[in-house]
Amino acid sequence: MRGIARIAMTGPVAAAVVAASFSLLALFFAPALVLGGATIGLVTLRHGPLEGLKIGGLALAVCVIVLLLTTGGVGRAGIVVLLPWIPVWCAAVVLRGSGSQGNALAMLGAFVAGFALMLRQALGDVDRFWAERLGQLGDAVREQGGQFLTPEEVTAVSGMMHEASVAVMCLGLAAMLLLARAWQAGLYRPGAFGEEFRVLLLPRWVTVASGVLAAVALLSAQGDGVPGLVGDLLVVLVLLFAAQGLAVVHERTGRAATRRPWLIGLYVFAFLMPHVVATVLAVTGIADQVADFRTLRRPDA
């Protein structure tokens, strides 16, 4: 994928076309959205906020023109693929200025928290919203002769869809930012991304916020779990601290070649049971805020 970054760095027009192309491709293949956002992030990290805005504006114009010519309008899907550029640009500005991936990820977490709040305000009953969408999907599948979830299963799944969407958005934005940083390091300073990631540390206000939120969650917890916005924010915090926990693991094991298979096993396990691994890494990240594991005796390289 570094070839994509090289093409984007050949000039403003090339960068805008790359960002627009992958964002439009995301209408058919969602993971392509990461490459479009990473392109905006890369330009901002390399050339500064104003250049990032310029490329974002050019890419936006390209996307709007293509959508108008092909579909007659931008549409909701078009807006969805373009919205991530804003938080990624802001986080790239923070990362460029501070050199701290933790600060940049915390900003992305704040954006996602705001998104969760606005979505709940706009939709009202989010469980009902997702139940209706799943019901429509089920009707379409059954019309084609296929099988879908039972009404009871739809109710159960719809209760998890909102928090799942919050988690996907958080992971997607983080992937855009970190890929942009990895591209920048690969093109201009090989090895710098790993060095920066291994010292990733969230700002202290995230720890304070997590403590307050944990107390609120305990007080408001019901028999079926933590309700509403509190649950959404807990998802965001778990993912943020999981990123710090992963940085700790890389620092403690990644420098020793004989211990790198542990990292491979971790990623395989994360693919198979992401909720378990995320929780363990989050606990590690929270503990690192207190104990600072990375200052302890490091394994031999």
Which percent range describes the beta-strand content?
under 5%
Helix content: over 70%
Overall geometric form: globular
Q: Tell me the Rg in angstroms.
A: 21 Å
Chain-wise SSE layout:
Blueprint (H helix, E strand, L loop, with lengths): L1 H7 L3 H14 L6 H16 L1 H23 L3 H8 L2 H14 L2 H23 L2 H18 L7 H38 L3 H7 L5 H17 L7 H26 L6 H13 L1 H18 L10
Features:
mainly alpha
What does this structure look like?
This protein is mainly α and 301 residues long. The chain is 80% helix and 0% strand. The protein has 14 helices and no strands. Helix 2 (12-25) packs antiparallel against helix 3, helix 3 packs parallel to helix 9 and helix 11 (204-220) packs across helix 12. The mean pLDDT is 86.
Briefly, what is this?
This protein has 301 residues and is mainly alpha-helical. Helix content is 80%, strand content 0%. The model has no long low-confidence stretch (mean pLDDT 86).
